[in-house]
Design goal:
Rossmann fold, 17 helices, binds magnesium ion, single chain, binds adenosine-5'-triphosphate, 17 strands, alpha/beta
Length: 505
């Protein structure tokens, strides 16, 4: 069906058209050009009214409104359409732009399922459904899961816009493909994920396996407490690492270092306090008898690692350790397949995908963290060894730009802050200015998908994962009213107890 006609000046990359109805920004249309059918994306949509232009006062506006309503030709629907390429080529995964611009007078047609299905929802096991096109709702939107494992991805959006929902969706799909996923869960968002192949666990750190400076971090020695750092470094010997009772052996060494080294008695006693404190406060997390915590990760499962209880520094040390180990395991596995020998038993034989929430905390711009070091290594080397990285953040401007630019695919949801948008624009070449300007007008669950996991940039609405709660907003009013109810119950039952006490007396 013809819905518009090309007018004015045309270019091989864009045309202007007059349309018969207002078209939505983000809608796909067909440009029936002289050289073949082209796929176009509505990038700007303007409506004007002849009668309601140059209005000088309110009365004039009211009169003109009536004139406008009577005159069917009053409204003018103008659109700017970006040309994405020849439809037939796009359906084969190739982008070919026309050499000659579409002639003015060319018809603009509605895009049908037949036109768009092969582009946005190709068949093949590696293509998983994540929703539908936002403006052409009947068209399924799929992403290529192979590309995210080999080329990484980022999910960027303001808080509450649906990042964790998309992660849950990806997790379900990876599970259905028997893939291995590791999610570092900072807000306890994924505990209730309704997946049979889930392996949920608290992150553990085995202090025996850490270098001394990392042990100092996890027991929370201050970074600039040089003397305390030295005490720990000197005391954390191989003999301690292998001791049956790790903490006692470490405490013994610290204590004897304090006694035998002049001027270190106070520092040693402070380190002892810190060790004692850490042993009690973090007994669930710091476990010298847990073996190698990475061995708890199971292949073919969605492994959700709860890091909610960890301090930022501990989480950082933990994440870095896991990234380093997983990368190493994958390397050994690949090397072994190539015939090189390896001496490790626990190896991930198939590719693994790792998702880091709150990426701006662990992979920050302008400051060093161990997680950042290992994440950028995974980003650079992962492709060769089958280890993919997914970073999720509500503050793209604070993520390390080098790591962000290595992410081959992006899902970007609503973002209003200018500096966040700029950071994304510089990380993603294929994000045009017009698409960028759409970011502030997206709703919850709407996303722009760009990069290698899609054949073409797509504006989609992501399916909601209903079978679980993903960090939905708290209903404070409801909880308050329940608190009142609990108070009443507590009051009644204490009164009952009091009466019972009296009776007993
Ligand atoms: N695709 C969607 N369709 C409809 N509703 C959605 C969609 N995605 C998310 N929501 C709703 O929005 C709420 C917040 O989603 P989600 O927890 O995924 O956001 P988030 O971006 O991860 O937030 P945060 O920054 O707090 O981690 C969810 O409770 C869910 O009900
Ligand atoms: Mg979230």
């Amino acid at each position: 069906m013809t819905i518009g006609v090309v007018i004015g000046e045309s270019k091989p990359t864009e045309v202007t058209a007059q349309s018969s109805r207002p078209l939505s920004v983000g809608e796909y249309v067909i440009i029936d050009s002289q050289d073949g059918r082209l796929l176009g994306l509505v990038e700007r949509s303007i409506i004007t009214s002849e009668a309601l232009t140059d209005i000088r006062n309110f009365d004039e506006a009211v009169e003109s409104k009536e004139v406008a309503e009577l005159n069917s030709r009053d409204k003018n629907y103008k659109v700017k359409i970006g040309i994405l390429g020849f439809l037939e080529k796009l359906q084969k995964g190739q982008v070919v732009l026309p050499a000659v611009p579409p002639l003015p007078g060319t018809s603009i047609l509605e895009a049908t399922q037949k036109d768009l299905g092969m582009i946005f929802g190709p068949s093949g096991k590696e293509w998983i459904r994540i929703g539908a096109l936002l403006r052409n709702k009947e068209i399924e939107a799929k992403v290529n899961i192979n590309k995210i494992v080999s080329r990484h991805f980022a999910i960027l959006a303001m808080t509450g816009m649906g990042k964790s929902n998309l992660v849950s969706l990806v997790a379900k799909d990876v599970a259905s493909l028997n893939g291995t996923l590791v999610i570092f869960d900072y807000h306890n968002d994924y505990e209730n994920l309704d997946i049979s192949k889930m392996n949920y666990m608290m992150v553990k750190i085995n202090p025996r396996l850490l270098p001394a400076d990392k042990l100092a971090e996890v027991i929370e020695l201050r970074e600039n407490a040089d003397k305390q750092q030295r005490v720990l470094r000197e005391s954390f010997t191989d003999q301690v690492k292998q001791a049956k009772d790790f903490w006692s052996a470490l405490e013994e060494n610290v204590s004897s270092f304090g006694h035998t080294t002049k001027g270190y008695a106070d520092s040693a006693s402070r380190v002892l306090d810190k060790i004692d404190d850490a042993k009690h406060r973090f007994s669930d997390i710091l476990d010298p008898d847990c073996g190698d915590p990475v061995d708890l990760i199971k292949e073919g499962r969605v492994n959700v690692l709860n890091i909610a209880e960890l301090s930022e520094r501990q989480a950082n040390a933990g994440l870095a350790y896991y990234l380093q180990e997983l990368l190493q395991q994958r390397k050994e596995s690949v090397w072994e397949k190539k015939g090189k020998s390896s001496n490790r038993n626990n190896r991930l034989v198939a590719p693994v995908f790792i998702i880091i929430e709150e990426a701006h905390v662990f992979i920050p711009k302008g400051e060093h963290t161990d997680t950042k070091y290992w994440a950028s290594k995974v980003a650079r080397e992962g492709r060769k060894f089958g280890i993919g990285l997914g970073v999720v953040s509500q503050r793209p401007r604070n993520i390390d730009p080098n790591v962000l630019s290595q992410m081959g695919s992006l899902a970007i949801m609503k973002i209003v802050q200018d500096d966040d948008q700029q950071q994304i624009a510089s990380a993603a070449e294929s994000l045009s200015k017009d698409l960028l300007s759409q970011l502030s007008s997206l709703n919850i669950g709407d996303a722009i998908l760009i990069g290698q996991w899609v054949n073409l940039p797509a504006i989609v609405h992501i399916d909601e994962v209903k079978s679980k709660k993903t960090g939905s907003d708290l209903d404070a009013v409801k909880e308050w009213s329940q608190t009142d109810k609990f108070k009443d119950i507590a009051k009644e039952s204490t009164q009952g107890l009091l009466q019972k006490d009296l009776l007993l007396d």
